[in-house]
Amino acid sequence: MWILYLVLAVILLFLAVILIRTLCFKPTSQPKILNDEIFFDKEQSISALQQLIRCKTVSYYDSSLEDDAEFEKLIKLLPELYPNVFKVCEFKMLPDRALLFKWSGKGNEKPTVLMAHYDVVPVDEASWQKPPFDAVIEDGVLWGRGSLDTKVTFNGVLFAANTLINEGYIPENDIYFAFSGGEEVNGNGAANIVNYFKENGIEPALVVDEGGAVVENVFPGVKAPCAMVGIAEKGMLNLTFSVKSNGGHASSPAPHTPIGILSRACCKVENNPFKMHITKPAAEMFDTLGRHSSFVFRMIFANLWLFKGVLNIICKKSGGELNALLRTTVAFTQSEGSNAPNVIPPRATMTANLRLNPKDTVDSAVEYIRKTINNDNIELIIGSNMNPSRVSQTNCTAFNKVASAVANTWKGCIVSPYLMVQCSDSRHWGVISDKVYRFSAIDLTSEERKTIHGHNEKIRLETACSAVEFYIRLIKSC
Questions:
Q1: What region does 168 belong to: left with phi over 0, alpha with psi -120 to 50, or beta?
Q2: What 3-state DSSP class applies to 334?
Q3: In this model, does residue 146 exceed pLDDT 80?
Q4: What's the pTM?
Q5: How far is CA 118 from CA 46, 109, 166, 283, 450, in A?
Q6: Which of 87, 93, 226, 260 falls 20 to 30 Å from 420 in CA-CA distance?
Q7: Which DSSP letter does residue 184 get?
Q8: CA 189 to CA 181: how far, in whole Å?
Q9: 210-221 pLDDT tens trace
Q10: 357 by DSSP, 3-state: which?
């Protein structure tokens, strides 16, 4: 009988530990909310954004399709739209459409870099409700390609600086504005700017680029808006699976055709996901947002030592953004075989796009795929790729500056670190700084998020103005 009591006591103690840890898992302090008001010409800021959108700065992987005149048009507009910036700041054009401004401060030991890109992805104009480059305003909404990604932040940075310069403001430290005209095609503009910094011995104390935003319903059990500040981004790998055969007529096939072999490999990969890794960005997000969640989810995130396996199962079954934060993902996106329905292809291929968890590398991911498919007849061809970025610090002044500017611009939001699952120009800066943060200075609904790189991209006017407000606050802290 005493054994039964002992087992019962152990169970009760175990449950008590879980309960106590859950009850103690309460929200931590967020940035202090100030009673500061930010004033600027909102109508003029919207007008400037409209003029940027009207420049068809579309990037293509085939550069012969690009219209150089449209990129030149935008660059020539800048002195007109932001005259104070050009009066005070040094301006350089570096190779590959890279634009670099230097606003000299009272000191140069802790410089800040504010980034954006001014190129946009192509559009299918026939599928848009409004012309994508007319910058139409209707019912408080500005329509146009680039209105979210990322001419809004390009304008936000420069209009904020233009406003502050007009007021006679001088920053405490040098501030650089670094803009790329080829981010959408993984161009070298941002890399060229980083090389300039390296060659001149400039080490940024803070770098801010596009990334997360203020969004809702992105974390289980959390109802408040969440401001997601990326402290790292996943790597990327395009991997092609190739199988050769003798070809032949489809009337007398071998037991396994090239497409059949590839299909089996595809199923093996999808049925055997990469191992889950709770890296620093994900762990800090869980620790921040988990404390604001409902009781059941608080219990899970307060006791990951126990429920890590449960979380893993949930993520593997559901997929989506939460799963992408925790493991390297594989999405099969392209396939190619015969050009006739009755011919067995002499060569068949399929291509997967992998997004690499910070614990993985290009080499380790390829090796995992190789072991998983376990077929020497399948050749793995490594295409364009990049390893995961460096992970930035959060317990530091640089992160606190960003968090404070976010919290005071979007009052009531929860500021949280996270892992960005897309790629951006900010990855280049990891070689010289561990204080690189990815935050697009906008608040987005779920419907608005879907229009990025899609049809009918548009932005609410108050959101576009919030971007300027955010950068004014951030610049004043630098």
A1: left
A2: strand
A3: yes
A4: 0.94
A5: 16, 28, 24, 33, 20
A6: 93
A7: G
A8: 7
A9: 999 999 998 989
A10: coil
Please enumerate in sequence order all residues whose Cβ is within 8 A of that of 439, keeping only pairs 6 or more positions apart, or say none: 208, 209, 210, 211, 212, 213, 227, 228, 229, 230, 402, 406
Q: Do 133 and 53 meet the contact criterion of CB atoms below 8 Å apart? A: yes
Helix (H) or strand (E) holding 233: strand 226-233
Q: For the segment 106-140, what is each residue's pLDDT rounded down to a tens digit?
A: 999 999 999 999 999 999 999 999 999 999 999 99
319 has pLDDT over 90: no
- 440's tokens: 């697009």
Token pair recorded at residue 257? 């055709």
For residue 89, CA distances in Å to 85, 92, 104 come to: 6, 10, 7
HSE-CB for 380 with a 13 A CA cutoff: 22
Greater pLDDT, 10 or 277? 277
Residue 396 CA: distances (Å) to CA of 90, 169, 436:
29, 25, 12
Amino acid at 17: V
Contacts of 387 (CB under 8 A, 6+ apart): 235, 356, 361, 362
Beta partners for residue 420, in sequence order: 233
The confidence score (pLDDT) of residue 28 equals 87
Tokens 């070689």 belong to: 431
In degrees, rounded to 5, the angle at the alpha carbon of residue 102 between the alpha carbons of residues 418 and 425 is 35
**Which residues does 134 contact at the CB level (< 8 Å), separation at least 6?**
54, 143, 144
Intra-chain end-to-end CA distance of the chain, in Å: 68
